[in-house]
Design goal:
It contains one helix and two strands. With about 80 residues, the chain is α+β, with helices and mostly antiparallel strands. The longest helix is centred in the middle third of the chain and has 17 residues. The radius of gyration is 24 Å and the shape is elongated.
Amino acid sequence: MVMVEATVMDATHLELSEPIMVRTGGVVLISVSEPVEKDAKRHEWLAASSASLQMAYGDSEPDYPASMVRESNPSYGA
């Protein structure tokens, strides 16, 4: 898959920021992302989620020494 930015010229025409390797008359699929204004709710949810995680794993989280580990994970930190 190739991602190319395009400028909307009118309701049925786009101007690509760079050429694409598609023959004349070829068909391409276009995905249109929602405008930033419509994405405000998503940002609210992300902020709320981040705040909840910070409370769950904040500075008050105890530090567990390596001696408390029952079974080590050899892949950890690899």
